[in-house]
Write a structure and sequence with these properties.
By secondary structure, this protein is an alpha/beta fold. It is built from 14 helices and 10 strands. The chain has a 6-stranded mixed sheet with strand order 8-7-2-1-9-10, with helices on both faces. Helix 2 runs parallel beside helix 7, helix 7 runs antiparallel to helix 10 and helix 10 packs antiparallel against helix 11. The longest helix is centred in the middle third of the chain and has 21 residues.
């Protein structure tokens, strides 16, 4: 029997103007942005809608902005949200997946991501690092490259985005060495990324500790549907495991390619990407080859879905 997954995008999916049509259309969406603005002591709506793009790319702002957009889509959809069997999100997108399944409220998700983003930006400043993208090499080869480059410092695979697209993360000199080794191994592409720090690596340890402390005062609910955890690429169904996975996620690789493989094995043939951009839809098209992919980013996307009677 055909199954459906909801995907929630992560950092790098943002664009200036995202969510404005949803904000203008719904007072409930405006309340979400007001909540975030109060928590951040910053007008995140203005930055999301007007830019500048360079400021929106800052971790402290990017993460809440993307989550808010995803929650705005869910809010405008309301009871028109398609039925689904699984939810998953890439890195910060996991919070959207947990919110749609009721494991945390929208308010909890916003506050947690505001805290997470601030902690991660602080960690980037304390322990500078960088990332690189390697394309065209198998997972085992990239793992071996990171092991060889680690004699100069920390470098690990950070995002298994697809079978042949892996991001690595760590100290600048070690990431640069890994890029050079990847080119020697005839990678189709190996390039340094313009990012704020070494996300999903041990260099984020201070953020991990801070988030664990934050979660000590937070209550969780059992999700209504399985959420596929980034850390394990397996479903989580209980609150204790969810909390542990979100903490570990800060310094552990995002196993997105493995997540997609698991979903294919479970019979998923329909993918909805909820939030800005089409990054996850593009990865799904190539690796999952589903029968149906729908992007729910704008008010027009939602209206088209409604008109189709889904």
């Amino acid at each position: 029997m055909s199954k459906t997954v909801l995907f929630f995008p992560g950092q790098a999916s943002q664009y200036v103007g995202m969510g404005k049509d949803l904000y203008d259309a719904s007072p409930n969406v405006r309340e979400l942005y007001e909540l975030a603005a109060e928590e951040m002591q910053f007008d995140i709506a203005r930055l999301s809608f007007e830019g500048p793009a360079e400021e929106l790319q800052r971790t402290r702002f990017t993460q809440p902005a993307i989550l808010l957009h995803s929650l705005a889509v869910l809010t405008v959809l309301g009871d028109r949200l398609p039925s689904f069997d699984f939810a998953a999100g890439h890195s910060l997108g996991e919070y959207g997946a947990l919110a749609v399944t009721g494991a945390m409220t929208f308010e909890q998700a916003i506050k947690a991501v505001v805290k997470r983003a601030a902690l991660m930006e602080e960690a980037c400043q304390k322990t500078p690092g960088t990332m690189a993208a390697i394309m065209g090499l198998q997972e085992d080869t990239v793992n071996d490259i990171c092991t060889r480059a680690a004699n100069t410092g920390v470098v690990i695979p950070a995002n298994y985005n697809s079978a042949i697209q892996i991001a690595i993360s760590g100290e600048v000199v070690s990431v640069e060495k890994a890029v050079a080794l990847a080119k020697e191994e005839k990678a189709r592409r190996a390039v340094m990324l313009q990012v704020g720090g070494a996300f999903h690596s041990p260099l984020m340890e201070s953020a991990k500790i801070g988030l664990e402390e934050y979660f000590n005062n937070m209550s969780w609910q059992t999700p209504s549907k399985p959420v596929i955890a980034n850390v394990t690429a397996q479903p989580v169904n209980d609150s204790d495991t969810i909390r542990d996975m979100l903490i570990k996620q800060v310094t552990a690789p995002v196993r997105w390619a493995q997540t997609m493989s698991y979903l294919v094995e479970q019979g998923v043939t329909t993918v909805y990407e909820i939030g800005p951009g089409k990054v996850l839809a593009g990865l799904a098209k190539r690796d999952m080859k589903p029968q149906k992919i729908v992007n729910l980013d704008t008010l027009a996307n939602i209206e088209a879905l409604t008109a189709a009677g889904v």
